[in-house]
Write a structure and sequence with these properties.
- Helix content is 52%, strand content 10%.
- The strands form 4 sheets. Strands 3-4-9-10-11-12-13-14 form an 8-stranded parallel barrel, surrounded by 8 helices.
- It has helices at residues 2-23, 29-52, 58-87, 121-135, 159-163, 168-181, 184-188, 190-211, 214-218, 228-236, 253-264, 304-321, 353-374, 387-393, 401-408, 423-427, 433-436, 456-479, 493-507, 525-539, 553-563, 573-596, 613-626, 645-653, 671-682, 685-704; strands spanning 105-110, 113-118, 239-245, 342-345, 411-413, 416-419, 438-440, 447-449, 482-485, 514-519, 543-548, 604-609, 635-640, 657-664.
- The protein is built from 26 helices and 14 strands.
- With 719 residues, it is of the alpha/beta class.
- The protein is globular.
- The two termini are 57 Å apart.
- Residues 52-75, 130-153 are annotated as: Disordered.
- It catalyses: L-proline + a quinone = (S)-1-pyrroline-5-carboxylate + a quinol + H(+).
- It comes from Drosophila madeirensis (Fruit fly).
Length: 719
């Protein structure tokens, strides 16, 4: 026994050498190998010395000799195993260098003393990685060797490719959730049923039930720390995250209407001047913006303090996807997305909706002013008029000081006028809206407002909204995380798009940090994207766009009919599909032109955010036809967590840039989000039918092959 204790002591010394060597892999693999060989030689000599000094009786000698031989063989095998690992590990991959020794001891009492035995190196490496995550100094080690790539089945009928990232329990849960979503009665009353369940079961049991069903399927976790395992597993199967803190207020229709009306009307009153457009004024019948909307979250303005909290929440999302540890000191795990993550935000979360309504009306009245002055249609820059052209239209007014001052502030370049107003000043927080949006009357030369007088307090609120957005985007740029600004209702969208484009101009100078969202169910989508692409080209900034079908179609149609303005929505589903494909094709055409001219094709970045596999197939076919590869990193694809896994995961595993929209938040506070997901799935029964079929095929396959306890483990690296 004394001999065994002695050998154990020497073996401990060897493990210490192992751990020190393994912690410093990044310094030099050859130095590590030499250290292992020296430690092997030293330990063997020590064991021989111990054996030589332990000759007492023949029986003891035989027993000690056998024990020493066994231990020595095991140690040599372990040396060989570690040596192989070190040789096969690329320099700089793994735990990382540093002077700090990451040895961890296990303490056990023996004869009144503490004996110390080092944990094996593999355990030390794992513990060190966890320690580093807690310190926020390192991310998970990148997979070694060549990244795995699978061929893509563009029919999206391969259940193995679709669900190899899932445990069997997760497949069963998904199947159960989709079965529930197929029941119209259950889905229609899902919010009521969830509230009843909470009252009957109590908070604890209700939380457990939700995590085992809807919450577990559609939501990644409760906070930035608890979502880390989901993000890491997604990445290991080639999929990247778009993070969204999905906490929503569960307020009544009456409360929603009250808040919306109060925050959409100026303290000076809802003044409808000559030329006012009814769609840009609040109507109580549609004040609850959740009406007939199942696939988008709605923010209702309460006060400026709430907007500040929303800004902080968005910044926390940015930090959760950032791998820039030096700039983001925190105790949670860092780098789970390896710098490929995106955060989604809504502008209505950052300010008073009245300001977006008024700004949207200004933009549309400016377009109307240009059409009346020069003919034609569309955005100001599409007219391709110059300052001299404007001077001609105002020539009858003579040497008018108002006109001269107005022309000095017009934004133009060698190709013509871009904007009638200095939008750069507006997003730089220092312009007064009431003084900015004025144009000369072509008949009298008098300046007339395109916006009603805004009280000083509301001017300050607008500057606060722009300041919050600037803070978020600046943080995103510093952390190298991208921002996707969601599209909203058409009566907000002109202002949202205009502000987003100015943020692109300001921050997308070296890469696409800010992305705008375009809803292709709108009749003007193609023209709007074309106009914005033109502005990006002329002002030389990177253009980012997320293309979606849209979330507000039924509400938009009903509101247009009730208020008497033209329906902004395409007449049919097929027309929307055509609009989507036409818009995507135009973006791809411009990317190809840039590649052919030797320009940086990444100056245009497009996300195909669609659950429609025909649209995804169309995008892939177009990429192949015009010679755009996934490695060009100009096209990516996105779907919601828990929906259409049979599209997202095969794309990621085949080397395409694939994203999942990742909601997270406490169980009770994401119930409105879960309710909307159930409603949305009810509306896409055809997709559910296919997903259920593929789920059942994979569950059956695992049962037949004895893979019931399959553990997902991927070696894919996202583009």
């Amino acid at each position: 026994m004394a001999l065994l204790r002695s050998l154990r002591t020497q073996r401990t010394t060897t493990y210490l050498i192992y751990s020190r060597t393994s912690v410093n892999v990044s310094s030099s693999s050859s130095a590590a190998v030499a250290a292992i060989r020296r430690s092997l030689h030293t330990t063997t000599a020590l064991e021989v010395d111990v054996q030589a000094n332990s000759q007492s009786s023949s029986n003891q000698e035989l027993q000690h000799g056998q024990a020493a031989s066994i231990l020595r063989r095991r140690q040599q095998q372990h040396h060989h195993h570690l040596l192989s690992r070190l040789i096969g590990t690329p320099v700089g991959v793994g735990v990382g260098g540093g002077s700090r020794q990451h040895a961890r001891y296990v303490h056990s009492g023996q004869n009144g003393r503490q004996s110390h035995q080092l944990v094996q190196p593999e355990v030390i490496v794992g513990e060190t990685m966890r320690d580093k995550r807690q310190l926020g100094k390192s991310a998970s080690p990148k997979p070694t060797g060549t990244p795995q790539r699978d061929p893509l089945d563009v029919s999206f009928n391969d259940p193995i490719a679709a669900f190899k990232s899932k445990t069997t329990w997760e497949l069963v849960r998904a199947y159960m959730v989709y079965m529930i979503c197929s029941s119209e009665k259950l889905v229609e009353h899902n919010m009521t049923l969830m509230k009843w369940s909470k009252q009957i079961l109590g908070t604890r049991l209700f939380t457990m039930l939700m995590k085992a069903t809807f919450y577990g399927h559609f939501v990644a976790g409760e906070d930035q720390i608890k979502i880390i395992p989901t993000l890491e597993r997604l990445r290991s199967f080639g999929v990247k995250p778009i993070l969204d803190y999905s906490v929503e207020e569960d307020i009544s229709q009456e409360e929603a209407e009250k808040r919306e009306v109060e925050s959409s009307v100026s303290s000076a009153g809802d003044i409808k001047e000559e030329g006012a457009m009814p769609q840009y004024h609040v109507d109580k019948s549609f004040a609850d913006r959740r009406y007939k909307v199942s696939s988008a979250r709605t923010y209702f303005y309460l006060n400026e303090a709430t907007c500040e909290r929303n800004m902080e929440t968005f910044i926390k999302c940015l930090e959760a996807v950032s791998d820039d540890d030096a700039k983001v000191p925190r105790a949670s795990a860092a780098g789970a997305t390896f710098g490929t993550g995106i955060t989604a935000i809504k502008l209505t979360a950052l300010g008073r909706p009245q300001l977006l309504l008024q700004l949207s009306e200004v933009i549309m009245r400016t377009r109307q002013y240009m059409e009346d002055l020069m003919g034609g249609q569309g955005n100001v820059l599409t007219h391709h008029k110059t300052i001299k052209d404007l001077e001609k239209y105002y020539a009858t007014l003579g040497d008018n000081k108002n006109v001269q001052d107005f022309l000095k502030n017009v934004t133009s370049d060698k190709e013509g006028i871009l904007h009638l107003f200095p939008w750069s000043g507006i997003v730089d927080e220092d312009s007064q809206l009431s003084d900015t949006f004025r144009v000369p009357d072509p008949q009298t030369g008098q300046m007339r407002r395109l916006i009603s007088q805004i009280p000083p307090k509301e001017e300050e609120m607008f500057r606060n909204m722009i300041r919050r957005l600037n803070t978020i985007v600046k943080t995103a740029a510093e952390l190298d995380v991208r921002i996707m600004i969601d599209a909203e209702q058409t009566y907000f969208q002109p202002a949202i798009s205009r502000i987003t484009l100015e943020m692109m101009r300001k921050y997308n100078k070296d890469k696409a940090i800010v992305f705008n969202t375009y809803q292709c169910y709108l009749r003007e989508s193609f023209r709007e994207v074309g106009t914005d692409l033109e502005q990006a080209k002329r002002q030389n900034f990177y253009f980012g766009a997320k293309l979606v079908r849209g979330a507000y179609m039924e509400q938009e149609r009903a509101r247009a009919q009730a208020l008497g303005y033209p329906d902004p929505v395409n007449p049919t589903y097929e027309a929307t599909t055509d609009m989507y494909h036409k818009t995507l094709s135009e973006c791809l055409r411009r990317i190809k032109l840039m590649k052919d001219c030797g320009d940086d094709a990444r100056k245009i970045g497009i996300m195909v955010a669609s659950h429609n596999e025909d649209t995804v197939r169309f995008a892939i076919e177009q990429m192949n036809q015009i010679g755009i590869s996934p490695e060009d990193k100009v096209i990516c694809f996105g779907q919601l967590l828990g929906m259409c896994d049979y599209i997202t995961f095969p794309l990621g595993q085949a080397g395409y840039s694939a994203y999942k929209y990742i909601p997270y938040g406490p169980v009770e506070e994401v119930l409105p989000y879960l309710s909307r997901r159930a409603q949305e799935n009810k509306g896409v029964l055809k997709k559910i039918k296919k997903e259920k079929r593929l789920l059942m095929a994979e569950i059956r396959r695992r049962l037949l092959r004895g893979q019931l306890f399959y553990k997902p483990k991927g070696n894919y690296v996202p583009i």
